[in-house]
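A.,

Following up on our hallway conversation. Structure tokens first:
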């Protein structure tokens, strides 16, 4: 029992409160019907106050917190509470001139604030401010997340051997494009989902494999969630993961997310024709249904389908890589009762962080990788990069505008292994996106680095005892640059200027093998890369992305990304003075970008005909502000609480605890460690393991000599 002080009562003015916390305030002095005491769950109250402090910093000004006078000491911390305190930034975010949209960080101290209480109207015996939060999850699931129907199982193909020797069977499901409106029978309102179920070890005697044996309802399911957005999810991509999971008594399901891999973007040619004829706005609305929230609905529909087919209760254990962690956290937010455990490698989503803040963090890593590369090859390669960009920008063959993009541009057409046309081109912008490959290179340690506690990487049967001096991605890029310069030198010596044959097919093949965006195969990566950060969960993320990545790059103090500027295209055969203005002057730095998508290279033929019909929709998505919520922070924070409420206890009631553990990497170029640590702090009961080996990175889970170690950390901790 606790008492609210009845003196100095006031009504706060000009405060924007969380939608779930907002209740009717009584008028000043209208306190006749207000009780003087309340039954308060202090654990839930503390979570509420801390969530408000993080998500609504302008509401969390200390003087607005009510004094709570308990009969016993009150504890308010995370996850258990020894004293009444609220986490705030060590640099007071509420001081004059420092009221940014960023709330308290994890560099915190704990201060006590003695302030008058706020008069709250007591309605229907439910505490205002939702102090009793026992039914919040139920409201979320029954509202926006209710009504998901089982997917339709179209087919199960007989078992076959995977390339790693494990046996798997293929399943095809059908789900609605929009799970909220499932009444339409039109084909364009349906999607096919391809899945592969790995369920046994390789067998030296193939005839003993029963191809028609049913799926085992007794064997627990692991659902592997791959990176992206836009990537396929083949079952043989991480062989050691299959072996590890089957050894632990699981069967592993790989689902190709909607619109990716073997789950086609369009149901059939009729649906494709209809979508391509849509207006840009309608295309944008269509593409908005391919983010992680609708992916989760698909996965839940598949789970319900399997429960129905197998007549057994199924809970997923999620193993997630990169973007798969985004998907899993949405799943954990809204449908935790469907999950047994969540294990994430290099994929903690930046909860509560807008795209710009995310890119400000990741661009630090991009710059660091560029410095590593050019420190190894500088100054020669820096000048070579300048020469290559000038050639591609001003002297490459002039190409006609392709379908969906009428403006001409300069570049070289790219062809497939069999000489087929891909519809993609090498331009100066696409060349400068090759820094995306830097993410698989370890950071070169410097004497000035503060972190000196990294352990030595353990040796394995597949790793050499002598590390290569130059990381492989840097070697490949250097080889491409050298080949490019050799072609240009040979062209000059042969007096071949401005000819289409200036750059050899060998060099173009080297570029094709190194270019890793592959937007012609996965256009959703370009169209939704910034949208996966946008959510109505809190004010910071309830805003358009506005191509945040290019804004961060162009504002970098080095000026090394100035090539992202988009002046008019030169159609003359001589060097254009307009175009040369984007080339940094001699001596200035010139850097490659990372995995972020920027409108300049996006609007170039990087993605070919698979992407160009959606360029107008991409601009609309960049301006879209009314994205649905991707996370429920209150639900995530309460994950560590026991499954018990005032309404009862036991399975199916109260809050369900889901085991959650993640591995993060110190020098991850794609997922910042600091943001991962903050996100883990917002998920109740989540344990974050920071990999001690500095040379391990974003894709360690998928590397054959590291998979077992990473999975061991995820399943067993350290």
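Then the amino acids I'd put at each of the 718 positions:
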């Amino acid at each position: 029992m606790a008492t609210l002080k009845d003196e100095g009562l006031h009504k706060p003015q000009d405060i924007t409160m969380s939608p779930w916390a907002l209740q009717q305030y009584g008028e000043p002095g209208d306190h006749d019907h207000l009780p003087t005491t309340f039954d308060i769950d202090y654990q839930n109250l503390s979570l509420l106050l801390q969530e408000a402090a993080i998500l609504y910093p302008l509401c969390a000004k200390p003087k607005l917190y009510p004094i709570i006078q308990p009969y016993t000491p009150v504890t308010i911390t995370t996850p258990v509470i020894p004293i009444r305190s609220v986490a705030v930034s060590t640099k007071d975010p509420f001081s004059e001139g420092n009221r940014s949209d960023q709330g308290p960080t994890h560099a915190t101290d704990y201060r006590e604030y003695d302030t008058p209480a706020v008069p709250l109207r007591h309605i229907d015996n439910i505490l205002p401010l939702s102090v009793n939060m026992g039914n919040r999850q139920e409201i979320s699931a029954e509202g926006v997340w209710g009504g998901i129907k089982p997917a339709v199982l179209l087919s199960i193909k007989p078992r076959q051997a995977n390339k790693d020797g494990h046996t798997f069977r293929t399943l095809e499901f059908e789900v609605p494009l929009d799970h909220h409106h499932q009444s339409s029978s039109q084909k364009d309102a349906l999607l096919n989902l391809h899945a592969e179920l790995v369920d046994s070890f390789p067998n030296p005697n193939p005839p003993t494999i029963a191809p028609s044996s049913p799926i085992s309802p007794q064997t627990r399911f692991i659902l592997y969630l791959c990176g992206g957005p836009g990537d396929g999810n083949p079952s043989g991509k991480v062989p050691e993961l299959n072996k590890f999971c089957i050894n632990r008594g699981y069967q592993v399901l790989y689902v190709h997310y909607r619109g990716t891999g073997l789950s086609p973007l369009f149901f059939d040619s009729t649906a494709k024709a209809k979508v391509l004829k849509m207006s840009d706005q309608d295309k944008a609305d269509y593409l908005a249904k391919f983010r992680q929230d609708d992916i989760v609905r698909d996965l839940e529909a598949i789970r319900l389908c399997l429960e129905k087919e197998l007549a057994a209760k199924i809970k997923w254990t999620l193993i997630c890589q990169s973007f798969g962690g985004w998907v899993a956290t949405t799943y954990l937010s809204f449908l935790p009762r469907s999950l047994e455990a969540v294990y994430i490698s290099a994929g903690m989503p930046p909860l509560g962080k807008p795209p710009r803040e995310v890119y400000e963090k990741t661009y630090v890593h991009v710059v660091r990788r560029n410095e590593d590369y050019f420190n190894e090859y500088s100054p020669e390669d820096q000048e070579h990069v300048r020469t290559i960009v000038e050639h591609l920008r001003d002297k490459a063959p002039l190409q006609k505008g392709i379908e969906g993009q009428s403006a001409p541009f300069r570049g070289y057409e790219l062809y497939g292994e069999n000489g087929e046309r891909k519809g993609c081109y090498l331009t100066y912008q696409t060349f400068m996106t090759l820094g995306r490959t830097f993410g698989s290179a370890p950071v070169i340690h410097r004497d000035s680095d503060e972190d000196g506690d990294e352990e030595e990487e353990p040796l394995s049967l597949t790793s050499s005892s002598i590390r290569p001096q130059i990381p492989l991605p840097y070697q490949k890029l250097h080889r491409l640059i050298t080949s490019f310069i050799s072609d240009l030198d040979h062209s000059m010596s042969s007096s071949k200027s401005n000819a289409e044959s200036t750059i050899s097919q060998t060099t173009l093949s080297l570029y094709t093998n190194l270019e890793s965006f592959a937007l012609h195969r996965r256009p959703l990566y370009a169209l939704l890369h910034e949208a996966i950060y946008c959510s109505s969960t809190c004010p910071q993320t309830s805003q358009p992305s506005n191509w945040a990545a290019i804004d961060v790059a162009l504002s970098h103090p080095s000026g090394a990304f100035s090539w992202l500027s988009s002046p008019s295209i030169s159609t003359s055969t001589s060097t254009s003075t307009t175009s040369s203005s984007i080339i940094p002057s001699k001596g200035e730095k010139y850097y490659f970008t990372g995995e972020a998508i920027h409108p300049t290279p996006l609007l170039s033929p990087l993605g070919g005909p698979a992407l160009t019909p959606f360029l107008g929709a991409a601009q609309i998505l960049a301006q879209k502000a009314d994205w649905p919520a991707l996370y429920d922070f209150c639900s995530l924070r309460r994950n560590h609480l026991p499954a018990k409420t005032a309404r009862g206890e036991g399975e199916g009631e109260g809050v369900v605890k889901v085991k959650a553990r993640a591995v993060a990497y110190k020098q991850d170029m794609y997922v910042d460690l600091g943001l991962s640590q903050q996100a883990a702090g917002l998920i109740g009961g989540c344990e974050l393991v920071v990999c001690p080996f500095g040379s391990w990175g974003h894709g360690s889970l998928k590397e054959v000599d590291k998979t077992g170690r990473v999975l061991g950390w995820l399943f067993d901790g350290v």
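The mean pLDDT is 75. Curious whether your intuition agrees with the design.

B.
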